[in-house]
Amino acid sequence: MPELPEVEIIARSLQEGTNEFPGLPGQMITEVEVFWGRTLEHPSPRRFKKRIVGQVITNIRRRGKFIVIELSVDTMLFHPRMSGDLRLGRSDQELGKHVRLAIHTDAGYQLAFNNPRKFGRVWLLENPNTVLDKLGPEPLDPEFSLETFYKSLVQRKRQIKPLLLDQGFIAGLGNIYADEALHLAKIHPFTRSNNLLEVQARDLFNGIQAVLLEGIRRNGASIDWVYQGGDFQNYFRVYQRTGEPCPECNTPIARIVVGQRGTHICSTCQILPG
DNA sequence: AGGGAAACCCGAACGC
DNA sequence: TGCGTTCGGGTTTCCC
After folding, report:
1. Residue A119: which domain range?
2. Does pTM surpass 0.70?
C-alpha cells in the first residue's frame, strides 16, 4: 500500500480525475465511532455499525455533491452540506473538533466525517441508486450536451437560479456557482427558464462548465471559518462582492434574495427581459 | 406546478 | 465586559 500523508483532507467535492485516495481501497472496516447519531440518515447507528464492520472499501467516487464510497456489499454516501469534510488519518489521531463519525480500518487508518454545523448526512445503502438516481446530469459529463440542457430549460417554467440549484435538474451546483455562472452568462436570476434564448442557454452552459472548472482548479473556496477549501474566493466575480465593481462594467454589485437565497448580480450586465 | 416559509445547526459578528 | 440578535450554507417538508 502506498504511504499515506499525515492527514489528508478529502476535498468537499472530489476533483475530476483525482477521485481516488491511494491505499484506501482494499482496506477492511474494523470499527465505527458515532459521535452524533443524527449524522446517519440511514440506517440507525446500531445497525450501521453492525452492517459495515467487515466490509472492504472497493472504490471512491463523486456524484453531484455526494461522496460515494463503495464497499464489498453496500455503498456509503456522504453529503457534507456546506460545513462538512472527510478526513483521512491514522486511527490514533484527532482529526477535528467536530468529528461526527469515524470509520477505522485494518490498516490503522480512519476516515473521519468532520461537520461543525451538523447538517451533513451519511447513508449506508444496498443500492445507492435509490438516492443517486434522483440527481440531474453531471454538468462536466461529456454526455451532457447544450441540446439536452436547452430542451430541459424550456420544458420548465421556473426562475433560472432556483432551477440551477435544484439537484434534480442539474447536479452539483451550489449558491456560489449559480451566481457566478449567471453573471458569466449575463442572465438575471429571475429569468424564467422557458424564456431563455438559445444563445443564452449556450452562454449559461459554457458559464457553468467554466466556473466549475475554475473552482476545481483552485481547490474550491474558503468563505468562513467552517467552509475551508482553496482560494477560489479571491476570484469571485459577484458572489459576496456586494458594492464592489462588476468586473465587466464597474457597476456596483447588488445583493438581492432569490428563492430565499442571497444572490449577487450586476444590474447592468444581468437584465430581466420584459 | 411553482414558490414562499420554516426547520435543521452553531460560531462569528454585530448592536447595545 | 457581557448579553442578545442576526446571519448563512443545502436540503426537506409543509403550505398556499
Report:
1. 4-132
2. yes
